[in-house]
């Protein structure tokens, strides 16, 4: 029954995302965005719905925050595909392939503006400020990978990039689950960073080892662009990315021990939605 309720809420999230586009001047492009809008794993939005419910966040607030984080994430995907020259996204041609790089960048910018506007209207200054900070952190990490020379032997730098690049939006999603609980919010925030870092490390391994024919996105771009990722250390006996992923996931959940209901919801979310994806990513080519 609980999963059915979350599925209903997720449909409401998707409807809200579509409504934000269709009520705007870019409504004619909704068909072009459909393969991306409200599809995919939506792990960040599902985190808000599952854990937010356990901590007492109102349903309408959960749906709004989930839509905000998924719109923000989609914007980063539109930008990423241009940067990485990725031709495939979620099993369909990337938006820039059909509409051009300029259109994809502008659409990504537009989605970010819509997400920030919705967050501002939400009226929680703490969460709005956190979202802005996390989006800046994503840009910091992307710029570092794009413009700075990375030390291929620097595992800590690899973790730092993963934490900021992907952990940041998971951290926002997690802290949104706290609602008005000021003691819980910073704990969820840090656990969200751990969760997102684990996801990025797993995604790094998928990009290097995955089967392009069975994947729903373009693979191999990290190596082509000589990015520092977890896959760089795949054969390094001193560094075990998979062990680090497991450590991060355990640490994220253990940190919530003082809030048993929240911890239980977190555990259920990771077991149902998160860990199967990570296991799939890390198993390929192993």
**Beginning-to-end CA distance, first to last residue:** 37 Å
Cα-based radius of gyration, to the nearest Å: 18 Å
Strand content: under 5%
CATH class: Mainly Alpha
> What is the CATH topology descriptor?
Farnesyl Diphosphate Synthase
- Largest sheet strand order: 1-2
* Helix-and-strand structural type: mainly alpha
- What's the number of helices? 12
Helix content: over 70%
Kindly report the name of the CATH homologous superfamily.
Farnesyl Diphosphate Synthase
Write down the secondary-structure element order. HHHHEEHHHHHHHH
- What's the count of strands? 2
User: Low-confidence runs (pLDDT<50, min 5 residues)?
Assistant: none
User: What gross morphology would you assign?
Assistant: globular
Describe the structure.
- This protein has a single domain, classed as Orthogonal Bundle (Farnesyl Diphosphate Synthase), CATH 1.10.600.10.
- Helices cover 71% and strands 1% of the residues.
- The protein contains 12 helices and 2 strands.
- It has a two-stranded antiparallel sheet with strand order 1-2.
Furnish the topology, listing elements before pairings.
Elements: H1 2-22, H2 30-33, H3 43-54, H4 59-84, E1 88-89, E2 92-93, H5 95-99, H6 101-122, H7 125-147, H8 155-176, H9 184-209, H10 221-224, H11 241-254, H12 260-283
Antiparallel strand pairs: 1-2
Helix pairs in contact: 1-3, 1-4, 3-4, 3-8, 3-12, 4-6, 4-8, 6-7, 7-8, 8-9, 9-11, 9-12
């Amino acid at each position: 029954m609980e999963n059915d309720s979350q599925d209903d809420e997720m449909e409401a999230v998707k409807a809200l995302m579509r409504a934000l586009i269709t009520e705007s001047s870019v409504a004619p492009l909704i068909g072009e965005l459909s393969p991306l809008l409200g599809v995919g794993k939506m792990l960040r939005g599902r985190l808000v719905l599952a854990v937010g419910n356990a901590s007492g966040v109102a349903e309408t607030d959960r749906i709004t925050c989930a839509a905000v984080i998924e719109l923000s994430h989609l914007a980063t995907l539109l930008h990423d595909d241009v940067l990485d020259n990725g031709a495939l996204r979620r099993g369909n041609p990337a938006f820039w392939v059909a509409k051009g790089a300029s259109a994809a960048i502008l659409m990504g910018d537009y989605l970010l503006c819509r997400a920030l506007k919705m967050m501002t209207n939400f009226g929680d200054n703490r969460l709005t400020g956190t979202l802005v900070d996390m989006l800046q952190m994503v840009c910091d990490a992307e710029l570092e990978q794009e413009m700075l020379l990375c030390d291929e032997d620097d595992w800590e730098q690899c973790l730092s990039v993963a934490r900021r690049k992907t952990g940041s939006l998971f951290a926002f999603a997690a802290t949104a689950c706290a609602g008005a609980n000021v003691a819980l919010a910073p704990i969820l925030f840090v656990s969200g960073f751990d969760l997102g870092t684990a996801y990025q490390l797993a995604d790094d391994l998928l990009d290097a080892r995955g089967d392009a024919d069975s994947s729903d996105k373009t693979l191999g771009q990290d190596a082509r662009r000589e990015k520092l990722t977890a896959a760089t250390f795949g054969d390094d006996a001193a560094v075990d990315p998979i062990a680090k992923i497991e450590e991060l996931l355990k640490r994220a959940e253990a940190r919530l021990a003082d809030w048993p209901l929240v911890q239980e919801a977190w555990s259920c979310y990771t077991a149902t939605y998160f860990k199967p994806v990570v296991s799939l990513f890390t198993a390929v080519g192993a």
